[in-house]
Specification:
Elements: E1 8-11, E2 16-23, H1 27-35, H2 37-40, E3 50-56, E4 63-69, E5 75-87, E6 91-98, E7 107-116, E8 119-127, H3 131-163
Antiparallel strand pairs: 1-2, 2-8, 3-4, 4-5, 5-6, 6-7, 7-8
Length: 164
């Protein structure tokens, strides 16, 4: 799996942040990597933490609960979300709630999956309730996403190799 493209981050407005990444893998494999708990746990974590997917019920009205643990199994951060849109192999819409933040600061997160030439394009748009939250996220999200998506590319590569 090549990593020609790092994650592209763009501020669409003062409260909207967009990320785009291309994976050299079939759309179905990329979508399932994003929606199946056992696959998420292989790649979706910041450096030094492990993801434990407590809940991942991917349908409109379903929810998720993710917890990131350090090496001592201490929960360092958690995320809950409600699925507000699910179009299998095409789009996912979530309302996300980070632990320690009021529910009024929820973030809308839309993720789309499209096939372009020989790659699967993932586009995500995060809509924050304030410009300050968006600006704060914009300072840390690029590095975190690059790390996570590099792990995702490696994971996809291993899955494709195992399938051969």
């Amino acid at each position: 799996m090549t990593r020609d493209n790092l994650t592209k981050i763009t501020m669409l407005s003062d409260v909207e942040l967009e990320y785009v990444i291309h994976f050299d893998a079939p759309l179905a494999l990329v979508y399932e990597m994003w929606t199946e708990a056992e696959q998420l746990e292989q790649w979706c974590m910041p450096e030094g933490l492990d993801l434990k997917v407590v809940e991942q019920d991917v349908h409109v009205g379903g929810g998720l609960r993710w917890e990131w643990h350090d090496e001592d199994e201490y929960v360092t951060m958690g995320l809950s979300a409600d699925f507000v849109e699910v179009v299998p192999y095409s789009r996912i819409g979530l309302t996300e709630y980070w632990d320690g933040q009021p529910r009024s600061s929820a973030t809308a997160h839309e993720i789309s999956f499209t096939r372009e030439e020989n790659a699967t394009k993932v586009t995500g748009v995060l809509t924050f309730v304030t410009a300050d939250l968006a600006l704060g996220a914009a300072t840390v999200i690029p590095q975190i996403l690059d790390e996570q998506f590099a792990r995702a590319a490696d994971y996809l590569s291993s899955q494709l190799s195992a399938a051969r």
